[in-house]
Specification:
It is built from 3 helices and 4 strands. By secondary structure, it is α+β, with helices and mostly antiparallel strands.
Length: 139
């Protein structure tokens, strides 16, 4: 008997939630359980728990207190990040500027690359010489 009442209450809650929402949730998305203070609704996709009560013929759901706190903390962090990024954009700067290499660093890098290319080309010449039947020459 108790099981039948729970199933009926769950069915009624789902029906009322469908009326309250314009868009139908995915089948099986919510799991509901009757509690002393109303109905606990678990969103199986997000893990969010809401406490629902019937008021004026409608099912009204609110986030659980501990999830509300976590939600507000995340919202505060995101708000601070947005404000920081907006300040950077307003000042005309980029979020993270990298320093360009100095002329000395570029010259040093190019010198290293040039030596590598010369050695590579010498190897290629040696290999071409050895494929013609000639003995490889060392420079």
């Amino acid at each position: 008997m108790r099981k039948a009442v729970t199933v009926a209450a769950l069915g009624a809650a789902i029906g009322l939630a469908g009326v309250a929402r314009a868009q139908e949730p995915a089948p099986g998305r919510y799991a509901m359980q009757k509690s002393d203070s109303g109905i606990a609704r678990l969103d199986t996709q997000t893990g969010e728990v809401s406490l629902c009560q019937e008021k004026d013929g409608q099912l009204v759901c609110r986030m659980a207190a501990d999830e509300r706190t976590a939600f507000e903390l995340e919202l505060d962090l995101l708000t601070k990040r947005v404000e920081t990024l907006e300040k950077v954009v307003e000042s005309g700067g980029a979020a993270a500027k990298r320093d360009l290499p100095t002329d000395e660093e570029i010259d040093r890098t190019m010198g290293i690359m040039e030596r590598m290319m010369r050695k590579f080309m010498d190897i290629v010449k040696d290999l071409e010489g050895s494929s013609d039947g000639a003995s490889p020459q060392k420079t």
